[in-house]
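To whoever is on call:

I kicked off a structure prediction for a single chain this morning and the downstream step that reads the tokens threw a length-mismatch warning. I double-checked the sequence; it's 150 residues and nothing unusual in it as far as I can see. Pasting both halves so you can look.
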Amino acid sequence: MQIPNPTSLQKGLGLTGRYIYLQLKSSAGAPFSLHFDYGFAERGHNVRVSVSNLFKSFNQSNGFVVQVPLDLRLERWSVVCLDLAEIFHRSGVFPASYQIEGAYALKSATICANIQVKGIYTSDNEYDLVTLPSDLRFKFPFDNSTAQLT
């Protein structure tokens, strides 16, 4: 599933924010992938951040695809936070002197098989379990002693 739909008149989401928060639930052992396409102010093509349990290590390929490993072993809902500025810096897609913060916008998100997604949010704020906004909290009780923000 791709958001926005490629046939729609909306050509991009235009979401900014250093952090992307994902509410996810994976099937045990089943492969999954999520792709986020970002447009940059001074770049002719998009940069894709691919998140998957198929990747064994953080990697960059073709100069515009960043592969981020994510291992969700438990079959339960999780909140995952990706620090995009750190991912872009670490990937080497841009020179070290490039000012990444504020230079990009989320154009599209693609959700592939074997994963359930409840929500995708962007923010300039980094949250922990205490400061997590109510929109990102799950409505059912959970054991806070074993919980962690991934």
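Update from on-call: the warning came from a stale cache, not from the record. Cleared it. Sanity check on the structure: The chain has one domain: 2-125.
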